[in-house]
């Protein structure tokens, strides 16, 4: 069997979550970079693979999956050596799932809602109403992390991988500095999640530099 193919762009937080997951389970992927600025996601060959034309998209020997949260659960279930990242115990898994939905429905939705107008529409500041929603999300995370090292268990899970990929970018737009448990957790992720410096940091650095260059001081 050939390596799973990941259609990706390295600046994307969801794509970075998949890369971190693959690193954590020791899986080698064939990366096919999609240039969003060149609108390659709208090319017919890619739309035939994923009619929603989104990245990341996984092709695992003909099995096509998109949405980073679906992909990382699939990869962990199929290729993971154990269930540490995504527990089989239903109660433990439910907590991981809740945090994954928190990322997709709140953290990433907020990041996209701020970043897209900056990148596409020439907006030069973070609207106050959106900033307040981000701070509210940080407050929730601070409570999740009260007296806990990780978001959903005794060791890092897919919840931490998914949320840190988003939050590391969101922090550049709305700083987390007033939320000590979130600050501590982010530092822990940087130090202890395998491949953080190679799979998340470079894309995050480029993404946040692009965003900051469009913002007024």
Automatic annotation (TrEMBL):
Supply one GO molecular-function term.
Answer: glutathione transferase activity
Record-annotated GST C-terminal domain positions: 89-210
- Which residue intervals define the domain GST N-terminal in the entry? 2-83
A single BP term in Gene Ontology: glutathione metabolic process
Q: What is the lineage of its organism?
A: Eukaryota, Metazoa, Ecdysozoa, Arthropoda, Hexapoda
Per UniProt, subunit arrangement is: Homodimer.
Q: Which InterPro entries match?
A: Glutathione-S-Trfase_C-like, Glutathione-S-Trfase_C_sf, Glutathione_S-Trfase, Glutathione_S-Trfase_N, GST_C, Thioredoxin-like_sf
Q: Which Pfam families match?
A: GST_C, GST_N_3
The identity of this protein, by name, is: Glutathione S-transferase 1
Q: Which gene encodes it?
A: LOC105273672
